[in-house]
Amino acid sequence: MFAAWIIQQKTRDAGIVDAFWAFGMAAAGGLYGYSGTGPEWIRITLAVLTIVWFTRLGWHILARNRSDPCEDGRYQAMRAWLGKRAAAGFFVFFQIQAGFVVLLSLPFLVVANTPDPVPLLVAAGVMVALVAFWGEITADRQLREFRADPANRGRTCRRGWWRLSRHPNYFFEWLHWFAYPLMGFGGPYGQLLWFAPLVMLIFLVFLTGIPFTEQQAVRSRGEDYRAYQRQTSAFFPWPPSNRA
User: Fold this and answer.
1) What is the distance between the alpha carbons of residues 208 and 197, in angstroms, rounded to a whole number?
2) Cα 149 vs. chain centroid, distance in angstroms?
3) How far apart are CA 184 and CA 121, in angstroms?
4) Residue that terminates a domain, selected from 89, 113, 137
5) Run of H or E including 34
6) Are residues 171 and 154 in the same domain?
7) Closest Cα to residue 29, out of 2, 4, 56?
8) Is residue 244 a part of any domain in this protein?
9) pTM, rounded to two decimals
């Protein structure tokens, strides 16, 4: 994250922090898979799952940032608020994200040290992760195709998953966290793994995800997005309402 901070000092694009967070999570999953004490097959499964999931997420974020010459509106607002303290403020913010990598990767540590994982539950966890992976890739593709059409500038995507949820990418990110309680079932601290999806739900819905994303969406799309908010579920996919 220190390296990411140096890069954003040169580019003035703090959006890189999201990609580096994802790459940090991938590295943590690989490290715990390598150094854990559980059976080799569960450690390999964990490493592959986390590296594939978070590396894809990191590259997706980088590609999205490269396609937009402007800094993400969330970080533009933060930069304006910090003013002359932007360099120091972003340094602290980036280091906090490094702390989140340590905190949020703890489920990987538990899974990697599970002495007797249940193969059927591990298979169920992998299936949950695959469904979430498919859903997230599909939602990202639908939004990317919508934004690629210049006629849609200033409008809100209501295609596919985005018709059922204002943030299907966050929903599938949250869904994938149910894989770890299943994979670590029966091990030391395995019961605590059920807090992982709960913590991610709090972060995504109430703290770092939806609130800031929606503030920026209202600023950039105005009444079109307000109508979308009234008609579409914020998180869980659900048929839209007909409220005007």
Assistant:
1) 15
2) 25
3) 9
4) 113
5) helix 16-35
6) yes
7) 56
8) no
9) 0.87
Domain of 29, in residue numbers: 1-113
In a shared domain, residues 10 and 108: yes
Please give the Cα distance from 122 to 46 (Å, whole number): 10
Query: Which candidate, 65, 4, 63, 58, places its Cα nearest to that of 28?
Result: 58
Tally of residues, the chain: 244
Contact 173, 132 (CB under 8 A): yes
Residue labelled with tokens 């800094």: 71
**Which residue is it, tokens 């059409």?**
149
Count the helices and strands in the chain (H runs, E runs): 12, 0
Count up the domains in the chain and report the number. Answer: 2
Per-residue pLDDT of the chain (244 residues; tens, 9 = 90+): 999 999 989 888 888 999 999 999 999 999 999 999 999 999 999 999 999 999 999 999 888 877 776 777 778 878 888 888 989 999 999 999 999 999 999 999 999 999 999 999 999 999 999 999 999 999 999 999 998 888 888 889 999 999 999 999 999 999 999 999 999 998 888 889 999 999 999 989 988 788 888 888 888 888 889 999 999 999 999 998 875 5
Asked if the structure places residue 21 within a domain, the reply is yes
Pick from 65, 98, 113: which residue ends a domain? 113
At 147, the amino acid letter reads: R
Identify the residue whose tokens are 């950039």.
220
